[in-house]
Amino acid sequence: MKMQMTCPCHFGLESVLSGEIKRMGGENVTVVDGKVNFEGDFELLARANMGLRTAERVLIKLAEFRAESFEELFQGVKAAPLEEFIGVHDAFPVKGHSLNSQLHSVPDCQSIIKKAAVERLKERYHVSWFEETGPVHQLQFTILKDVVSLFLDTSGPGLHKRGYRKNSNDAPIKETLAAGIIDLAHVKPFSTVYDPFCGSGTFLIESTTKALGIAPGLNRRFAAEKWDQIPGQVWAQERGRALDLIRRDAEFKAFGFDIDMQAVELSRDNAKKAGVLPRIRFAQGDISNFEPSEEKGIVICNPPYGERMLEIRQAEELYKKMGEVFVPNRGLNYYIISPHEEFERLFGRKADKRRKLYNGMIKCQLYMYFK
Ligand SMILES: C[S@@+](CC[C@H](N)C(=O)[O-])C[C@H]1O[C@@H](n2cnc3c(N)ncnc32)[C@H](O)[C@@H]1O
Hints:
The chain is of the alpha/beta class and 371 residues long. The chain has two domains: 3-153, VC0802-like (2-Layer Sandwich); 175-214 and 239-369, Vaccinia Virus protein VP39 (Rossmann fold, 3-Layer(aba) Sandwich). Helices cover 32% and strands 23% of the residues. It has helices at 14-24, 42-51, 70-78, 106-125, 175-184, 202-211, 232-244, 261-273, 309-325, 343-347; strands at residues 3-8, 27-32, 35-40, 59-66, 94-99, 139-144, 147-153, 192-195, 253-258, 280-284, 297-301, 332-338, 353-359, 362-369. The strands form two sheets. A seven-stranded mixed sheet has the order 2-3-1-4-7-6-5. It is globular. The structure holds S-adenosylmethionine (SAM). S-adenosylmethionine (SAM) binds next to helix 6. S-adenosylmethionine binds next to helix 6.
């Protein structure tokens, strides 16, 4: 069965995610702000949940229609083929948000959508009451400029939850954003990657799993795995496929440093949990002493960015230091994400390329030095 699917992602990573989806076999892939839409079957749905590195979740799109009144909202939802995915015992809670629309009260929209879903399913299943004791089928809606989109979430906990980062330090970068930066930095199975501000180790762990072809969701479960509507063998087959794609013979290696010994230990623990510790060497170290051990490599990092004035000045000193130790033209490429507007001036060189990315609500730039 072919379905319409949508994956939300970080603003700025749409093209990276659409590339991932196309390589996976997604059809009719289109990009909108913060999302990628595509078509595929149950196999692709399972593969996308397990294998996409930059998607926040995988949603099935059930309906899209204009609504400026509660009646239009009710009728639009009631016309959606909910019974194709929601069984008579399943739970179907509703959540969502509205922006720049006539229908702006989220709790009201939530209860109208629930009523419409109940009405539709009552007619299909000939029952008058739903106990909702079965697996959760989370209905999710967005209303943007009076256009309602209705989705079913197949992922459950967000896909950035890979299972290896139970603990984190103060300012960890989200796994999905880190994976997007790694894609833009062209990390390959034969690369050497450095992160001199490794924190909880995210860039290095994500780089290693990518280089070795380890699917990010291999060790976790997804909401739709409990659904009766998707045959269990689909998930088993896609797990087997993901295992076959692992390249244990890749030459990849990585090095992580942090001034804080606790961060170094945390990175080690996380890398161990992710099963990639043998590929990464961690050590305590100050950026002033950064010295790559190989001739070629890729440096990827998000250096500290202070919120208070004193911290900002300290961060600025670090950016100057980075400009000194990140020597150009030495076979090393540098990818640095920072929200600091003056980064290039402090670092001392204009980036060869820049890209606007959002780290949550914070507008950042990825500064790329590769010439
Ligand atoms: C924003 S965090 C990096 C987060 C990391 N990317 C992660 O995913 O967890 C910045 C890190 O830089 C480290 N740091 C601060 N000053 C440093 C210095 N002079 N040399 C090396 N590391 C430093 C901090 O201990 C902190 O872990």
